[in-house]
Amino acid sequence: MTPTSTTTAPETQESAEPARTRPRVEGDREREILEAALVTLADVGYDRLNFDAVAGAAKASKATLYRRWPGKVDLVVDALQLMIGVEADRYPDTGSLRGDLIAQACAKGGIGEDLPLQVFAALLGSLHRDAELRDAIMTRLIGPKMAVTLKTFRAAQQRGEIGKDADLELLARLLPAITIHDAMLTGTHPSQERLISLVDSVVLPACAATLQRD
User: Name one GO molecular function term (predicted).
Assistant: First the structure.
């Protein structure tokens, strides 16, 4: 039987790279590569993002990237984690829901920054088409991030700022949902004044309304 040869497109090779131990990149190079991945992602979108483009932007070799990240999904999710963070202790406890929400929204990597909105805009279409990307982002990024946000709303509930039977997940999604929607329509990130206005005119009244049902 005559053997047949098959060729695989470069992008398929990237996504099909087998799982392996993922050694860290030395020094600040890992951060530089992830930052280059974010900028490239915002510029070309997820579908056109590849290791060649990121390596060129970071002035690194593709071999360096492959040693650390088995595929594009892993690289992108690590870059997103660097950008927005998910650690609960990175935000101050101001003692009020208003103060906490403003501090989180206006923090580095928060929804008030331009790059995060550009990056998520570049990902939106691909999230609907790419189940691997969607599952990785939900598991490693959105889930942990929502857990941090819900901790803020539960603390407010315990202080009596939110009703005991309130849908905390719904309340927690209000600010990012409106902000991302506005950014998609206008192409600009919200100002600090806009974020504060949304907290005061939308989120806090919605929370206060839940107290009336108790």
Answer: transcription cis-regulatory region binding
Per-residue pLDDT of the chain (214 residues), as tens digits, is: 444 444 444 444 444 444 445 566 666 889 999 999 999 999 999 999 999 999 999 999 999 999 999 999 999 999 998 887 755 556 778 999 999 999 888 776 566 566 777 788 888 889 889 999 999 999 998 888 888 899 999 999 999 999 999 999 999 999 989 988 887 787 777 888 999 999 999 999 999 999 987 6
**Per-residue 3-state assignment (H helix, E strand, C coil) for the chain:** CCCCCCCCCHHHHHHHCCCCCCCCCCCCHHHHHHHHHHHHHHHHCCCCCCHHHHHHHHCCCHHHHHHHCCCHHHHHHHHHHHHHCCCHHHCCCCCCHHHHHHHHHCCCCCCCCHHHHHHHHHHHHHHHHCHHHHHHHHHHHHHHHHHHHHHHHHHHHHCCCCCCCCCHHHHHHHHHHHHHHHHHHHCCCCCHHHHHHHHHHHHHHHHHHHHCCC
Say what the pTM is.
0.74
